[in-house]
Amino acid sequence: MSDALSAIPAAVHRNLSDKLYEKRKNAAIEIENTVKLLIAAGDHDKISKVIDVLIKEFAKSPQANHRKGGLIGLAAVTVGLATEAAQYLEQIVPPVIDSFTDQDSRVRYYACEALYNIAKVVRGEFILFFNKIFDALCKLSADSDANVQSAAHLLDRLVKDIVTESDQFSIEEFIPLLKERMNVLNPYVRQFLVGWITVLDSVPDIDMLGFLPDFLDGLFNMLSDSSHEIRQQADSALSEFLQEIKNSPSVDYGRMAEILVQRASSSDEFTRLTAITWINEFVKLGGDQLVRYYADILGAILPCISDKEEKIRVVARETNEELRSIHVEPSDGFDVGAILSVARRQLSSDHEATRIEALNWISTLLNKHRTEVLCFLNDIFDTLLKALSDSSDDVVLLVLEVHAGVAKDPQYFRHLIVFLVHNFRADNSLLERRGAIIVRRLCVLLDAERVYRELSTILEGEDNLDFASTMVQALNLILLTAPELSKLRGLLKGSLINREGRELFVALYASWCHSPMAIISLCLLAQAYQHASVVIQSLVEEDINVKFLVQLDKLIRLLETPIFTYLRLQLLEPGRYTWLLKTLYGLLMLLPQQSAAFKILRTRLKTVPTYSFSGGGDQISRASSGVPFSQYMNHHEDDDAEDINITSSHQGINFAARLQQFENVQSQHRVQARNNVKYTYTTSSSSTSKEVKRSEDEEEEQHKPPPSSRSSSVADNSRPPSRSSRKGPGQLQL
């Protein structure tokens, strides 16, 4: 106590701890004057004693009024010291900063007031304690007491002024503290932090842009704050930094790109838009720095292409095109495998637009870096094949383009066709929904003849006969109708007169044997009318089923389309194309008379002219409208043009062997059909067979004639038939 009295008079000591502010204020003025006298006398030891007393007996006192007096007293000492205050700051400032966490809000308020007065006196010397003061102010900005918040804001403005004019501020020491605080969610703290970032960025001598990666994520995090004001402040700060990036010759794009990629997948719409906008600028500005981040950037862009917000979709598409147009090589660090991996993952997206762009990337890489892509083909091939079952036609078409690009190499071509057939076999709905579009597109992208030959080779050895039949029927329908296969149809039309056509006919024939109607269609297309007629004649009862009649109905309707115009025109020369007539009449005989197809074909055949050529075509002999079909078949048969063609081309097409091949395949189908029926019958009737047999035995016993009648019947049967009973087939016997 004696030390205290020697340093501070008793009256001053007493008033400094009084509950009345005016008394404490007057005591502080006395201390200020005392310190001025001590400074004038050069008594620095006594000044230190005054400060120690204020700290130990007042600032750290358990009584709130003492702590308030101590804070006012320390501020008064600093004011009294004036220019000499800097050497005592190590004693004065720490207890004031400690008071910011005092339980009493009034003490916290006076701490802000005291530090404010201290800062005004020492100005630049104050920077030594900046980090501690900043940390304390950060906490006070969210204080529960409005007066404390207000006092803290006043102090904050003063500290900002001091920092902006100081050349001793260390941004390197400050950034770790700022980074640590950026994850705080309190809105007042966030406003405080954004305010400091903005102020420091405005100081020319402070390079905040260089440290932007350290707090960029925190700023983006604020974009989703519930407070509109905070979102606006954060957006304003980010916009300013982005403008600086555009004008800066040196920027660390890589570290920031990692942050932007993460933020581009934010659940907050505004955050996604800002992130994708930044990525867009980075792609334009980043150059070589971003090459190793391309895969991550692409992974952020592709989902945004399908974003529900149009602005995000527009920017994402622009960025995607910009990224794809950049020309880089693997030697520059461009990771083709990583890009392919991203594209493969995005093929599983629920959004069509994203899947389409993923395929565009694979296609682009295939064109630019084919060798590297083929090295990673095993990683993406299965995914590409599964994509053929996509619900979107546009996706399927793009997948086919990618497959076609890969299939330029023979080994991959075979792999593609084999797997395609496998997928059709495993998923019948895929064949129904996508079969036509897949085959037609492949025929455009790859050579149609090559595709059909490969498919025929695979189906020729197919063990699943039902699938083979269905697949051949589908391929046959595509062959007959698709505009893309017009060249292939033209080649087949010349099967009887040129080698290329014959070879293609024989190649397709092997698998087309799985469907009688497909074989007949192929023969009509190849103008092998005699063989078509022979095939029709070879059909047996088992072949004429519902499926066959459905296919026949389709063929009859196709005969009326422009594709078979040549065939209908040949009907103008019935004498020359007798086998064509026989084939069409054969088909007519297979159709139910009440069917629409029967009426269509019959109507067409009625229009066939009832004249034929005789004497080399010099004379025309007209027949009556009721000329029998046999007359057409027998008239000048030796001069039939088709017979001449067939005879001359037998060395190319062995029709007898082809017919045997067809019958062998159809025999396998019949055996399988019988086995299926037998199995069905066995499983369905085994439980009732005994009962049926028992009822038959009972019925037989009831209808047995007497023994005399049976002997009489036998005698009658042993007699020769009477004249009246010798009737021909179909005659009624009386």
From TrEMBL:
Biased composition of type Low complexity is found at 679-689, 709-723
Q: Which domain of life is it from?
A: Eukaryota
- What do the Gene Ontology cellular component annotations say? endosome membrane; PAS complex
Pfam families in alphabetical order? Vac14_Fab1_bd, Vac14_Fig4_bd
Task: Describe where the HEAT repeats fall, as residue ranges on this chain.
Answer: 92-127
The record's annotation in InterPro entries points to: ARM-like, ARM-type_fold, HEAT_type_2, Vac14, VAC14_Fig4p-bd
Bias kind Basic and acidic residues: ranges: 690-704
Which Gene3D superfamilies does this entry report, sorted A to Z?
Leucine-rich Repeat Variant
**One Gene Ontology term from the biological process aspect of the record:** phosphatidylinositol biosynthetic process
User: For the Vacuolar protein 14 C-terminal Fig4-binding domain, which residue ranges apply?
Assistant: 429-608
- Region annotated Disordered sits at 666-734
List compositional bias (Polar residues) regions by residue number.
666-678
User: What does the sequence similarity comment in the record state about its family?
Assistant: Belongs to the VAC14 family.
Q: What is this protein called?
A: Vacuolar protein 14 C-terminal Fig4-binding domain-containing protein
Species of the source: Brassica carinata
